[in-house]
Structure formats: structure tokens, C-alpha cells
Design goal:
With 129 residues, the chain is of the alpha+beta class. The protein has 5 helices and 4 strands. The protein has helices spanning 2-12, 46-53, 58-63, 77-83, 98-128; strands at residues 20-22, 31-39, 42-43, 86-93. The longest helix is centred in the last third of the chain and has 31 residues, at 98-128.
């Protein structure tokens, strides 16, 4: 039973409705399926991103020790990447789809339950005869 729930959550649920793709920040309650960095319309590899971020002292940025007056692009690694021609594509399901997803899942689970119940009744009647 746990496996079926996990498979449903990981494999099926994201396909109930087509996910949206955006370059804008998403709502914190949205279900983010994936994030992908691109540069010039092509997927950016992790090594490309690391090479671009190498001049930025990530530890200083994280600790707040950077000096934004000297280099405002260094204030945020995401903004730094955007400033250098990268685009972040986010694939997500908006939070407004929560209840429709519940109804979809409830519907197919009810249908599956009825099918299993009908098969059980058929098998019991067949063996009784």
C-alpha cells in the first residue's frame, strides 16, 4: 500500500494537469517539479554555472560579508547568474490545483476500488458454483 501511494505521489500526480513553466519567481506554496538553468536557450551544465560563479565569494555572500556598494551583482548568486545571461526555468504546479488534484486522485482510486470489488464478487460467485 505504501509503495502504491509513493508511486502515485512521485510518478502520476504531476501529470494530472500539464505543469506550468516560468522564468519568474513562483509562489512559496507552489509545487516545484524542477528547475533548470539555461544560457542562450540551451541547458547550462553545472560546470558552466560554477565557472560563472567562481569570481563570486559564495561564503561571503552567504554570511552577508559582501560589499554591495562595490559590486551589486555579487549580492545574490541567482541575480549574479541572471546578470550574466542565465535564465532559470521553473516547472511547477500552482497551489490552486490542490483540490482538483485531490478530486482526480479520489476518482481514479474509487474506480479502482470498484473494479477490485467487482472482481472479488465475480471470483467468489464462480468458486461457490
Amino acid at each position: 500500500m505504501v509503495r502504491a501511494r509513493l508511486r502515485t505521489a512521485l510518478l502520476l500526480r504531476r501529470h494530472y494537469e500539464a505543469p506550468l513553466i516560468t522564468t519568474a519567481p513562483t509562489s512559496p506554496s507552489a509545487w516545484v517539479i524542477s528547475r533548470l538553468w539555461t544560457q542562450g536557450g540551451h541547458p547550462a551544465s553545472l560546470s558552466m554555472i560554477n565557472q560563472t560563479l567562481r569570481p563570486v565569494d559564495i561564503q561571503a555572500v552567504t554570511l552577508g560579508l559582501f560589499q554591495p556598494a562595490r559590486d551589486p551583482a555579487n549580492a545574490d548568486p541567482v541575480q549574479y547568474l541572471i546578470h550574466h545571461g542565465y535564465t532559470q526555468l521553473t516547472t511547477y504546479q500552482p497551489d490552486g490545483r490542490f483540490w482538483p488534484f485531490q478530486w482526480i486522485e479520489g476518482g481514479w482510486l474509487l474506480g479502482l476500488s470498484l473494479l477490485i470489488l467487482a472482481a472479488t464478487v465475480w471470483l467468489v460467485r464462480r468458486r461457490a458454483a
